[in-house]
Amino acid sequence: MSSYVFMKLLETRAGRYDLGMSLLSLGRISGIYRAVAARVPEGANVIEVGCGTGGVTGRLLARGCTVTGVDRSASMLKVAERKLSSAIEADQLRLRVLDLIQLDREFADASFDCVVCCLVLSELTRAERRYVLDEFCRLVRPGGLVVLADEVAPRSRARRLRYRLTRTPMAALTYALTQTTTSHTGDLSQALAERDLEQIEHEAAQGDSFQIASGRKSACHLQPQA
Ligand SMILES: C[S@@+](CC[C@H](N)C(=O)[O-])C[C@H]1O[C@@H](n2cnc3c(N)ncnc32)[C@H](O)[C@@H]1O
Questions:
Q1: Residues with CB under 6 A from ligand 1
Q2: 192: domain CATH number?
Q3: Any bridge partners for residue 113, and if so which?
């Protein structure tokens, strides 16, 4: 869905993000949030990176997960906090303002059963993506899961061309208004495989320009010596 490039605009008005995403995706975003959360085992201890207004977070909580949601945007987290206040009171959800680059100093190795990251990688530079993907593998315990969902370039040449033709003017407009943009990520299942994750599963959504992928860290993965 090339129109996801507009999500940078929506993030500048956190109070309207949910409605805006629903319109941009023609109502399909909630199905995506559900599909992402469905990858996570019920009751898991999860870190959701770039949780924003809590679209996926709410679905994880409904699966009985305990969630630590981190995001650098205090205004996005404020919306999540309002929506999910009962889970915060019940100690099922912790929200923290945090930039991704702080993950390594905030959380110890293997702290979580599962790392979830939806629609964030496309906002990062290549170097940031490499760093956070390595971090995700560090944060998850042996036998745990990394679940990614994001915009990817369609596989077929014709679709890729059409995607580029529609996306480029939207990206230019977004850049003019926010001085930031997003770019589709490479194949997510490949990124997981390159990090030695196993049992990789992926599904395409919204044509083939959106991917949900998960991979499991080997149960006998050795942690580095302290
Ligand atoms: C498009 S929103 C996605 C939010 C949510 N995951 C969803 O699917 O609706 C991207 C989120 O990533 C956050 N984000 C982007 N770069 C970040 C960074 N370097 N550190 C922490 N959060 C970041 C933004 O603040 C925003 O809330």
A1: 7, 11, 50-52, 55-56, 71-73, 76, 99-100, 118-120, 123
A2: 3.40.50.150
A3: none
